[in-house]
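Give me C-alpha cells for this 751-residue protein.
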Amino acid sequence: MKYRVILSCMAAIVFCSHTAFADEGMWMINGINKALEKKMKQRGLKLSANEIYNADAEGATISDAIVSLDFGCTGSMISDEGLLITNHHCAYGDVHALSTDEKNYLEDGFWAMSRQEEKSIPGKNVYFLKSVLDVTEEVDSLMQDAEKSGKHMGMRKLSFTLEKKYGQESGLEAMLASMWSGEKYYMMLYEKYSDVRLVAAPPVSLAAFGGDIDNWEWPQHKCDFAMYRVYTAPDGSPAGYSEDNVPMKPEKILKISTSGYKPGDFAMVIGYPGRTDRYSPSAKVNFDSRVTLPISNRIRGSQMEIINRWMNSDPSIRLKYSDYYFGLSNVQEMNCGKARNIARFGVIDLKRAEEEDLQQWIDADPERKAKWGDLIPMLNEKYAAVEDAERDITYYRETMARGSSFSRVVSRINMMRREILDENGIKRRPAIMNEGPDSAEIRCCRQFRFCGKKYRSISKNLLSEYDRFVLDVERDLFRYSLQEYFTNISEDCLGPFQKGLKAEFTGNDGKCDFDAMAAELWDNSFLTDRARLEKFISEEHTIDDYEQDPMFRFYQDVKIINLNRRVSAIEGTPAILDLEKEYTHAKYEKSLAEGLAQYPNANSTMRLTYGTVGDLIPYDAVHWSWRSTADGLLEKYDPDSYEFNMNPEQKRLLEGADWGRWAATDTDRSTKMFVNFLTDNDITGGNSGSPVMNSKGEIIGLAFDGNKESLASDVYYVDDYTKCVCVDIRYVLWALDKYAGMHHILSELGF
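Here you go.
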C-alpha cells in the first residue's frame, strides 16, 4: 500500500502559471504539478501526471516500473517475470567479478539460456520507490527541540531517528533526503529486493564499442545494455537468495516500442541522477577549475597510460584491471571535459553575473542584508585563503591515497590491528605508546600473532588484497606517484621519514633520484612480495615489525587528518561548507519570492526530465545527426585497436545487414539499423540505464552517456549543448535475437 504524499507548491517544485520553461531540470517525481504537466504536454506528452506518479491512487504508475540499482544506476522492469534492463556499464563490475581467464564474460558476453543459468549477484539490491513524504516540519521540530536542550542534531542523527521511525511504521526501507541544503526534507520509502541474478550482458566489443576513445563523444555506436532478473520468496515478498525463490511479478512493467522516433519527438527520462552542484558559487567553480581539476586530471591521465600499457601487454592483466580502469577513465575524461567546458562556455562569468543579481536582491531588504550581505565576498576570500593547502590535499589524495593499491594494504594492516584489539575486548586509544610497558593493549600488540583467534582470518584478508592487483603494475604506479608527491607537495607536509628519504636521494645538483628511492622502498619491503609476506605472517612477529616496514612507514608518515586540520584552521569560522549552505538558501529564497521554477540538486532520488529527439551543433559549421547507424561500426572497425575491434560473429552479422524486424527507415527511406540517438534530456551520473520513453511512456531506448559539450552541466546547464546519448531499444532487441539467439527472452517480452 502506498503512503500518502504531501504535495505543496512550496515543496518539491515551485511554479507560477506564467513561468517560462526550459528543458533544463531534474524534477522531483512527486513534484509534477499542473504547470509542469501542461508544459510536457505542449512538447508532446500523451500521459497525465497521475499516470507517471501518484502515491494517493490505487494501481500502478510509470514510476513503479523504474528502480534504483544500489543508487548507482537506474533500471526498469520490462516483463511480468521480473526481467530488468539497465546499461552494460552498470553491470560491468558484476560481469567482471564473474569472469575468469577461462570464462571471460567481459570479452565473450554472458547469455543465460535458461533460468538455471542465471547467475546470482551477492550484494546486489534493487529498490522500488513506494512513496515520498514531506517531513520538513517534523525535521524543524526535532532540530528546535534539540537546540532548546543544548544539543546538536546533524543530518546523521536526523536520518537515524526518522528513518528508524518511518521504517518501522511502513515496513519499508526509509531514507531521508535533504533538498536545497536543508530548506526541505523528504522521506523516501522503498521496497528492497536482494535476490538479483544476471541474465544477459553482451561482450564489450558490442556493448562498449569504441571504449574510452568514444566515451562522451558523438557519434557513438554502443549496444550498452544488460539484463537482470529479480526474484522473490514464493509469496512474492522480498527475500535473500534461495533456490526456492521465484521470479518477481512487478506491479508495473514498461512496454517496449519498436515504432521508432524522429527529430522533435517527445522524450522522457525517469531515473536516479546521482549528484549535481548547480547551486555552487562562482568561487567554488573557479577554485575547482584552476586548482583541483588540473592536478587530478593530469595525474589520473598518466596513471591510465601506465595501466593501459600493462593491459595491452597481457590479457590476464587486462581482466584484473579492467573494472578499475573503467571507473578511473570515466571520471578522468568527465573531469577533463568539465574543465574545458567551464572555460569554453564562460561558466564562471555566468555565475558571477547571477551573483551580482543575487547581491542586489539581498541588499534591497534590510533583513536579508543583515543575514547574507557579506556572504558572497566571504566565499571569495575563504576560497582564496585555502588554495595552497587544498592544493596539497589534492596531491596527497591523487598520489598517496589513491595513486597505488598499496594505500589499501596499509589501511588493511591498520584495520587488522583494530580488529585484534576489539577481539580481546581492549579499548583502543590513539596514543598507545604512551601507556605503561605492561598495559593490556601494549601486551596484545607486542604478542601480535597470539592476540586473538581472529588473527589467521584477518591475515588472510590482508593477503586477499593482493588478489586484486598485479605487483609489477603497482610498482610502476608507485614510482610515478612518488615523484608527483615529492615534487609538488609543500615541504611542511612531509613527515620525518619522508624528509629523510628526500634528503638521502637528493644529489648536490638538487635533483632527486626517484628511481633509486622507489627501488629502496620497494625492494626492502616484505609487503611488496607475496612470498615474503606469507613467510612473515607464518612467523611470530609484533606490531612493531609491521610498523617498521619501509613501505608502511612511507604511507603512514603523513596523515590526511593533519592536512584537513590545516585547511580548517585557515578558513576559520564560518566554514566554507556553512557559507555554501547559506548561499543555496539565499538562491532558493530569491527564486521562491520571484515565482520561478526551481529544482534541487540531484542526490540519488527519483527525478524526471523531459525533452525531444534532436541534432547537435557542437561547434561553428559542425552539424551532427540525431542518430547513428550500424554503418558507423564498420567504418570505425580496426582489428589493431582493442577499442574498435569486433569478434568474428559480430563482424559477420553487421556485414550481412540482416536487421530482421528490428530495422528502421532512415530519412532517405533506406533500411538501416539505428544504434544510438540524441535527446536534450537533462541527465547526470546515476541516470545510466534509465528508460528513455516516448509520449506514451513506452521504452524507445536507454540513457547511457552524455556528450562532451555537456560535461560542465553538473554546475551549470548550457542550453542547446547538453545532450543525452541513448541506445536504441531495437538495436538491443537485434542483439538478443540475431547475435545471442535469446529467443526465450524475446518471447517473454512479447515478441
